[in-house]
Amino acid sequence: MTTDRPVTEPADGGENAEIVIVGGGLAGSLAAAVLARAGHRVALVDKRAVYPDEFRVEKIGGHQLDLIRKLGFIDALEHVACRYDRVLNIREGKVVDVSVGQAYGFSYASLVATARSQIPDCSNLIVDEVIAISNGDDVQHVELASGRRLTARLVVLATGMAGVLGYKLGIRRRVLAERHSVSFGFTIARRDGIPFDFEALTCYGERTADGIDYLSLFPVRDGMRANLFMFRDPTHPIMRELRREPEATILRLLPGLRSYLGDFRVTDRVQNWVMDLTVVEGHLLPGVVLIGDAFQTNCPAAGTGVARLLVDVDRLCTEYAPQWLMSAGMGREKISQFYSDREKIAADQQSLKMARFRQALTSRNGVGWDVRRRLHFLRRSLTHRVDQMHPGWIGRIRGALRA
Predict the structure, then answer these.
(1) Share of the chain above pLDDT 90, in %
(2) pTM (2 decimals)?
(3) Bridge partner list, 150
(4) CB contact at 8 A, 307 and 347
(5) What pLDDT digit, counting tens, does each position of 343-377 carry?
(6) Nearest to 119 by CA among 69, 148, 76
(7) Cβ-based neighbours of 328, under 8 Å, separated by 6 or more
């Protein structure tokens, strides 16, 4: 690493860092690891030394794994996650198709801990709470609840949906869709102790009135994890039933599951999450940049949240922040480069597009949407059948079209 970068001098006894990252969840911990491994002086501030086992991201696959590899975390992920390669997709008790591809299931807490373990120096993690940020074109000052003060060139807000610090800086959160979706997470097992007959399974909703997009079952270290995604009023009594009697309620809502699950039970506490779709405004500030949910929230059912987060970390930490630190100043013109990045904008827009599509496909009524739903699953089923009869044929056709 070159040593001729502009140096930020600590003021009033403050401690020096190049970058202060506020929030030690997945986005903040990954960003800290990427930047610290590249030789930057990073301070990651979070009030929890060990991140709690919250119901958040619990599986990664597809393009998300490409980003994990690019960031250099695939080996670490494999140590804490369960790999699976085939997902049986069903609707109304019938097979729609089978998804084939590498994927991993894990607990969110273990993923955050793994990201933090990749930070070369454990002293980079400061267990404290940020209570104030004073930003400017050159130097940023961060005040902690303990009385400690940090001085840095750049502050990265990775605070998720917690908006107190952003609000103090003049950043506002605009709600695009209030209570857009409801998610449930729990672990299941057969009562007889026998493993399930599938590696992983996705069961799609059967009736628009139920508001169920799909139930995803996939392996984690502690068993078979279940993620249920719904578009329904979170105050409806069905939410209470899912928490109190999850087994009976799941089979009543998705009767086609019965033959696949057998006599099963929920082995842990049912957790749930209500998500608003939001974006921030007034965020273009000198010396401060927002990533992950701090910038824009996602619909969990769309499966785009992790991809958005990883794109943010990749573009900020491998492209922009290292360049910014090579020259004096940290004004709006620098910060705007990140927010204007084509890959970031595309990921943000795709996330909102998929959120609206999943909701419409799940719960919109009317002849047009009913036909569209039927065609959606019919097309998938026909493609699967053709590929079974002529293995690899679909892939070859797609490859030829891309060429």
Answers:
(1) 84
(2) 0.90
(3) 15, 142
(4) yes
(5) 999 999 999 999 999 999 999 988 888 888 888 88
(6) 76
(7) 6, 138
- What stretch of H or E contains 110? helix 108-117
Residue 252, Cβ neighbours under 10 Å: how many? 12
Tell me the C-alpha distance between 162 and 313, whole Å.
19
Give the residue extent of every domain in the chain: 15-82+105-175+277-357, 178-274, 367-402
- Say which CATH architecture domain 15-82+105-175+277-357 belongs to: 3-Layer(bba) Sandwich (3.50)
Q: What is the residue type of 76?
A: A
C-alpha closest to that of 49 among 103, 121, 126, 110? 126
3-state secondary structure 162-209: CCHHHHHCCCEEEEEEEEEEEEEEEEEEECCCCCCCCCCEEEECCCHH
φ, ψ (nearest 5 deg) of residue 288 = -135, 135
What Cα–Cα distance (Å) separates residue 174 from each residue in 179, 286, 295, 324?
13, 21, 11, 29
Architecture of domain 178-274: 2-Layer Sandwich (3.30)
**Helix, strand, or coil (residue 47):** coil
Strands 172-190 and 264-266: antiparallel
